[in-house]
Amino acid sequence: MMAQNDNKFNINIILIIIAILVFIFLPNFVSGYYVRIFTAIFMYATISQCINLMSGYMGYLPFGHVMFFGIGAYMTAILMGRGLPFIVAIPFASLTAIIVSIILGFPVLRLRGHYFAIATIGMNGAIMSVAQNATEITGGAMGTTFPIILLPPGQVYNYFYLAFLGLMVITTLAMYFIVNSKFGYGIRSIKANEDAANSMGINTTYTKVSAWAIGAFFTSIAGGLYGYWMSFISPDEVFDLMFVTNSIIMMLIGGAGTILGPITGAFIIESLSEFAWSGFMEYHLAALGIATIVIVFFVPKGVVGTIANKIKNRRIALSKKAEVSNG
Amino acid sequence: MSLQMLVNAILLGGLYALMGIGFSLQWGISGIINLSYGAMVVLGSYLSLVVFNALNIDPFISMFFTGFLLFFLGAFIYRFALQPSIKGGIVFTLIITFAIRLIVENIILLVWSADYRTIRLSYAGTNFQFLGTFFPLTKFITFLLAGIIIYLSYQFMTNTKIGKGIQAVALDKEGALAVGVDDQKMYMINFAVGTALAGVTGSLWASIYSFSPHVIDVMIGKVFIIAILGGLGNIWGAAAGGMLLAFAETSGATFLGSQWQEAIGLVIMVLILLFRPHGLIGKKFFG
After folding, report:
1. How far apart are the CA of A256 and the nearest CA of chain B, in angstroms?
2. Most distant CA pair in chain B, distance
3. Domains in chain A, ordered, with CATH?
4. Which helix (H) or strand (E) element contains residue B153?
5. Which of the listed residues A135, A285, B21, B159 has the most CB atoms within 10 Å of its CB?
6. What is the DSSP letter of B128?
7. Band (B283; pLDDT cuts 50, 70, 90)
8. Which residue in B has a C-alpha nearest to residue A122's C-alpha?
């Protein structure tokens, strides 16, 4: 039995490595349009992973999580405007996001359920107001620009494709190891019953704030990359709740509380939304809304969750069969 | 703070109070954070515009029509979209109400485009003076009507059979079921009343201010703050929250500049959440 499991584990690893290799070389074979779509998918998958850690595993819905996306984008823009290269600006931006998440996390993570979700929306709005009104630093509501990259556009887009792919893979690996560590069990116990976890000796405050800081770290890197990719950002754009709403929908569709769920969901929703854009230009918002409602109704456990359930049921049925034939 | 500013804040506060009540009832009693609330308010404004253009009827009269229409829309949405998904928890209802908002916004964009629209009433510029301060006539009528509707909804909640049923379900669901109250029906009526109040607010809003699909985001931000300030499911609490937000915005705009108006409200909301999570009025539940 043990050997069989090990074997399966190896096959999964090989499959994942093959998939990553295919995606690394994909831009050489498809047009720029698809490269752009895939880049967006990787970006959403990254944000969705962070929200999955908070919501899917820990049970806290961070509706205003987009604030870290915006902070990452703006800090990168400000530092690059001062002449720092991108590689230096990004660590500072993510450090800022981590500091903000810790400062805000201690008071706001005491709230539960609805109240936590709403408080994060409020904080996002307040930080967006600062970005809109601190005109000397952020460029105000007009937005700000990044330095232009002096390379052919096709090549630049391929670099961003690879960067977002790398970010998604690293985030997913990090989430895998976090969730399966002792710290990860602490996170899950908070979802199951926070008071019980506390009385079992898990430092819930520390666990919650750390999980939020981890989410802030990866989301802010995605934000910085997004800003550099778009080369122009404005407060309305990078603090838009749409980013988080989309990521939450992706997490739900793929399967909340599973490692591959957010990635699967990102592929499904982003292709659907791209199809809605090209197919029903004027109705794309309504099409997206209707598709969301239909999906939430018919796959409430998410694609990955549903498939995993089916496999589990089949295994149980098979083992019962084996028992019957043996006995 | 001059007397004129005080009057302006009170007149604005009446509208905010009315706007917050529907949202607060939906959240506090039906347990649904309705992200489509802003879209419903703006839809009410557009319905009033249609009636005004076609029949030349003031929004002060057509608000009954919009309230009536949105009551049934709310009941329909609750019955067919929210009731089946409510056991999925906060994530599902948030996502579904957001999807409804997208659909309504798309319909508004298709039918009326993204331009700002206004309803020009013939007496819109009229003022009257009292104790040295100016009262714009339309704002004054809006304030009076908002007060009357708030009073009527309070009477509905406390003195009618359905209203008492709704309160019973809000206080103790199992107990209400045991004495024969249909809980899902009560939740549905409560949600529909909330949506109707959104439509009425939209009509009143349209008589004073211009509106477009962009207003939806502003509205949803404001109703969150009002509901949190007042405590959920509490009519007088939400009314007080609306007044308070109007005072905070008016004084904040004077002392810090109008661009910080939204940030002030949001910061107050977060502080209230942290220190008085049951709202300023302070009771855990109304009843």
Report:
1. 11
2. 59
3. 32-326 (1.10.3470)
4. helix B137-159
5. B21
6. E
7. low
8. B266
Asked if A297 reaches chain B (Cβ–Cβ under 8 Å), the answer is yes
Q: How far apart are CA B258 and CA A30, in angstroms?
A: 50
Contact B102 A286 (CB under 8 A): yes
DSSP 8-state secondary structure symbol assigned to residue A17:
H
Which residues of chain B are within 8 Å of residue A119 when distances are taken between CB atoms?
Answer: 269-270, 273-274
Is the pLDDT confidence value at B126 over 70? yes
Distance from CA of B202 to the nearest CA of A (A): 22
- pLDDT tens digits, B155-177: 998 899 999 999 888 888 888 88
Average pLDDT on B278-287 reads 56
- Helix, strand and coil percent figures for chain B, each rounded to 5: 75, 5, 20
Chain B residue set in contact with A, beta carbons under 8 Å: 27, 33, 81, 84-85, 88, 90-92, 94-96, 98-103, 105-107, 109-110, 221, 224-225, 228, 259-260, 262-263, 266-267, 269-270, 273-274, 277
Q: Do B260 and A133 touch (CB under 8 A)?
A: yes
Task: Report whether pLDDT(B286) > 50.
Answer: no
Among all residues of chain A, which has the CA nearest to that of B261?
Answer: A129
Chain-chain contact of B90 with A118 (C-beta, under 8 angstroms) = no
Q: Which residue has the higher pLDDT, B31 or A44?
A: A44
Do residues A190 and A65 touch, judged by C-beta distance below 8 A? no
Read off the pLDDT of residues B249-258 as tens digits, 9 standing for 90 and up: 888 877 877 7
Could you tell me the pTM of the whole model?
0.82
Are A218 and A46 spatial neighbours (Cβ–Cβ below 8 Å)? yes
> Which chain A residues are Cβ-neighbours of B270 within 8 angstroms?
108, 119, 122-123, 126
Residues of B whose CB is below 8 A from A283: 106, 110
pLDDT of res. B279: 66
What distance in Å separates residue A120's CA from the closest CA in chain B? 8
Q: What is the pLDDT of residue B253?
A: 78
Average pLDDT, chain B: 86
ipTM above 0.85, yes or no: no
Min distance B9 CA to chain A CA atoms (Å) = 22
Residue B46: band (very low, low, confident or very high) from pLDDT cuts 50, 70, 90: very high
Ranges of chain A whose pLDDT falls below 50: 1-2
DSSP B117: B
State the number of CA atoms in the 13 A half-sphere of A139 facing the CB: 17
Contact in structure between A74 and A138 (CB atoms under 8 Å) = yes
